[in-house]
Design a protein that fits this description.
mainly alpha, two-stranded antiparallel ribbon, 6 helices
């Protein structure tokens, strides 16, 4: 009994397709592309691309600002917990205004941009490099 990978099944498929090896009347049937353009596709102007790029950039910038603000709030809460032990007297609006030297030094240990830039690099890393990265976090 022949398997699907044997030469017998390949020859039987050829006979089903016909002499030229194609389907139907010999025309090539593809995905409807010619020179990389899909049939019926509308051309996109440079102006549309620029508008879409600007929109995406503004959305991502807003998301980044939100992430940075949330991170800053969390760092301030942790700072307050470590220095004052309790959150009973914690006021987020007053904490956002705190730019003391002690807080700036504490915040520098939790800098997101510094952490992100050091993790960029080759996609393949050694086990030792991975362990060092985890310990740095």
């Amino acid at each position: 009994m022949p398997t699907k990978h044997s030469k017998w099944s390949a020859s039987s498929r050829k006979s089903e397709k016909g002499a030229k090896g194609g389907l139907g009347n010999g025309k090539r049937l593809g995905r409807g592309r010619r020179n990389g353009v899909t049939k019926g596709a509308q051309l996109v102007s440079q102006e549309d691309v620029a508008v879409e790029r600007t929109t995406m950039l503004l959305e991502r910038q807003a998301k980044l600002d939100q992430i940075m603000d949330t991170h800053d709030t969390m760092v301030r809460e942790v700072f307050h917990l470590e220095k004052f032990v309790t959150l009973i007297e914690y006021n987020p609006t007053i904490a956002k205004q705190d730019n003391s030297i002690v807080f700036q030094k504490y915040k520098s240990d939790y800098d997101l941009l510094e952490k992100a830039s050091t993790s960029a690099g080759p996609s393949r890393t050694t086990r030792r490099a991975h362990i060092e990265r985890v310990q740095n976090l």
